[in-house]
Protein 1
Amino acid sequence: MAAPELSVRLRGLAKSYWRGALEIPVLTGVDLDIPRGGYYALMGPSGSGKTTLLNLIAGIDRPTGGELEVCGYDLNGLDDDELAGWRSRNVGFIFQNYNLIPVLTAFENVELPLLLTDMARSERRDRVDRALRLVNLADRMRNYPRQLSGGQEQRVAIARAIVHDPGLLVADEPTGALDARNAEEALVLLEHLNQELGKTIVLVTHDPKAAQHARVQIHLEKGVLDRTVEVHDRPVLPRILEDRG
Ligand SMILES: Nc1ncnc2c1ncn2[C@@H]1O[C@H](COP(=O)(O)OP(=O)(O)OP(=O)(O)O)[C@@H](O)[C@H]1O
């Protein structure tokens, strides 16, 4: 078990891919501690391994070496079924292209992670209502993704990521497909989830403005952490979450 105050603890984390007999090392020894409630941005040049690292932290890929403790569990010690169960309880995912299911309404998309649990229907409904209110989309719950703007789709995706109340949110370029106004709105929402609900957030981004919302920026270079920068001049936010109850 990891120290309870840490959400993520990585030691010598390594990941290689193989092309035939040729090993392609992507991460070659990453050490990183992310405290519970931390907000970290992973940055670095294209191909530096940001998404690879995020996928390892989120338990959707396996390392080829090193230690990996996330949300209190040694992920290397879990078999594939256990890892899937761990993911469904502990991690919320937010992607660049939202990954909503087109034939499901906003409500049904947000409900999806709860269908993996044995939660009663009435509680599922309450949770989905609450999550959609939180992202200010309660009035669009019957809409299909094609009936929503990109910014609204991403907010539905954020509601889906938090509906099962995971401790850790991972976001891979969540603003990459959004215009400046919608990007800012999504970032403000993430920041509230961090500040007011205490979610640990790990965000992969190329966008310096997005990274400015994080508390710590981690720069990857050639498979290792190159430098860590604390963000001091983060934007000041109005408190909004409790208003959406
Ligand atoms: N499944 C895979 N099989 C083989 N090589 C892979 C695989 N996934 C990633 N790679 C390689 O690993 C390296 C790191 O990829 P990764 O997507 O983690 O980088 P990134 O920093 O997120 O890049 P970008 O900013 O362009 O998204 C790249 O060279 C990529 O081609």
Protein 2
Amino acid sequence: MEQNTPSSSAPIDEQAASDEHAASVDRAPIDEQAASALTGSGLRLALVDTSDDAAFTEWIRADFRGFHSPAPKEEVLTEARGYLRDRRTTAVYDDAIPSPTPVGTVNSWVAPLTVPGGARVDAWAISSVTVAPTHRRRGVARALLGSELRTAAAQGVPLAILTVSESVIYGRWGFGPATFASEWRIDTKRVRWAGPQTGGRLSFTDPESYRETGYRVLDAVMASRPGEIGLSPYLADRLIGPLKGTPDAERFRLVRYDSADGEPQGFVSYTVKGEDDFTRHKVEVEYLAAATDEALVALWRFLLELDLVAEVRAWTRGVDEPLPALVSDVRGARVTAVEDHLWVRILDLPAALEARGYERDGSLVLDVSDDLGLANGRYRLTVTDGVGRVEATEDAPDVILPVSTLGSVYLGHDLARGLALAGRITGDAAALDRLFRTAVPPRLSTWF
Ligand SMILES: CC(=O)SCCNC(=O)CCNC(=O)[C@H](O)C(C)(C)COP(=O)(O)OP(=O)(O)OC[C@H]1O[C@@H](n2cnc3c(N)ncnc32)[C@H](O)[C@@H]1OP(=O)(O)O
């Protein structure tokens, strides 16, 4: 469980990726291979100048439309332009149609991804992949994803990451599901608190006055667990309070937890929704941030003991969320779903494997295939005192696997056995598992 205390005073925009890679987001030119593939289909690939409000607004409209979201009002557009300006923003235009709205969108930025051992590795984060329903299944997404991955690799970023709308899309581009998220439904009329007492203070607050503190808490949370990413102000603010246009924004509540000596350690943002029966409200947890075990325990207890509430629902928790141990009746706190969450794509195999730590020593030859030709090859990984060294080799492979499978096991999840059963690892999968698996499973507790 998390034990990092948010003592750092760095503002959130400084705990971002390395300067070198962050600058590459602006510097990298358009990918010519994708541009010419789209030209062949009568379409135009372009980087969007996000300081051009009119062009950026059309891109945002396309993004909202692509996910079937309501058409954004002016205040939503203004807020989104402010938050998303720094991302590398790419559009596909069909100049033969009368509308100026792009028919394809994607954006990307370099985010620090926490890996086993605690290092934070630059990762090319990809979001807002949409193709207009009028232009689907003509290879637009294929061009956009190829463009993103080649650009990231050319800039020396070792990994690409994304969270997905549908789990069937991204395997073909070398991504594998690397973290899983649990969804919870707790019958609070049934369970009694069985966890420890905590000595700190809970209090209501509001997003404006808590924001800076919340950023520090979030940074401690994100640094403490493999699979979490450093959050931009946009991603952090969404967890602390509602953005413009969020349904039920007036229902948001924000409660902070500070240790007995006044150290901020966590918060929970949530909404309470009414039922016909006034004693049976439902709580939806927007985000529970706990930088310490003490905060985790205190905030769960707060939620589970709310009066006039019959049910608490929570999403994107880890697969090792300790709730069952904290309640009197295990069946009153149910996991209602476990889903793939963070998808990882290795771009630079030696850099990615040397960046993470290992819990056991050993040596393994991996033969990796990659349809995009970015990370394929045969490498020996040698781990000594938890530190990995990678070198190209012609030795016989211990395991043969596609790059998507390597992405799946990269953050330490115990997926190797199943992937071997499915034929996606050939050879000594148990040895791969021993070297890559971590005692604590990776987790990503938010969407991006
Ligand atoms: C990181 C993120 O942003 S996740 C969000 C993804 N976006 C969405 O879910 C929004 C709604 N959907 C869309 O906008 C589009 O359908 C997209 C972006 C998913 C796909 O765009 P398209 O341009 O139609 O995809 P494209 O024609 O390039 O297809 C490439 C391949 O992916 C497959 N594919 C594309 N979308 C899907 C899907 N939803 N389900 C299964 N397969 C799919 C295609 O069949 C094709 O397969 P092939 O390699 O075997 O030929």
Protein 3
Amino acid sequence: MTTTIAVANQKGGVAKTTTVASLGTALGELKQRVLLVDLDPQGSLTFSLGIDPEDLDVTVADVLLGTSLAEDAIVITDDGLHLLPSNLSLGSAEEQLVGRTGREQRLRVALDKVAADYDWILLDCPPALGVLTVGALSAADSVLIPIQAETLAHRGVGQLLDTIHDVRQFINSKLTVMGVLPTMYDGRTTHAQNVVRAIGETYELPVITPPIPRTIRFAEAPAYGRSILDTATTHKGADAYRQVAAAMLAAQG
Ligand SMILES: Nc1ncnc2c1ncn2[C@@H]1O[C@H](COP(=O)(O)OP(=O)(O)OP(=O)(O)O)[C@@H](O)[C@H]1O
């Protein structure tokens, strides 16, 4: 059985990409077969895993437009992760998709063909609620919502949940919300603790533990083209992601 998780939040810079790269690496350490999918035209996930997005001939854009199969676009990173990469061509593909039939189903249909090769598929959504994020929600079993524990984090969660509700009603009735994952968390401040608790209570969402601590090591990792789990093997941030990954595996049964 493959579990597909969309890591989504239309707010930018909340650690979606970091979460996908780190959980993917942690699940790989647990001997899971993992596919990461970069759905952001900025190609940050692709870049952070050591691949130059502009060097690619075939990307997820071609898969969504139907000119390539997912299996022909997937690359294997230096760390041995399987990645369906992206680059700026995804921006124009997104515009073209708006007028194309089945635009919200295309990712699911493409991933169905390779799903048997993977235990987990992690989808890195762009910071928007457009066709790419809706396509990811349509392909996913579950959504993980990274949030930054600050007051403004509230804004947007309701809008994302409305989109999830619509997707569930019209496209993908099995979609569940795994929960909110506090990132860049400073547990020494009661403010951060209060914000996380308030978000969980307001939206009746599970809060995933442990929260991911704020650490400069995350910002450094992409410069090496490696996940933090490889550049800082014993760091508390890496360990938090490892614990989340272990809990995901346990819950999958
Ligand atoms: N726990 C953390 N502590 C400190 N910095 C972090 C942490 N997690 C992520 N960062 C840094 O925060 C920035 C934003 O992270 P990231 O790119 O993962 O967010 P994102 O939600 O994917 O962004 P976008 O919405 O633009 O795609 C990056 O510079 C990243 O290195």
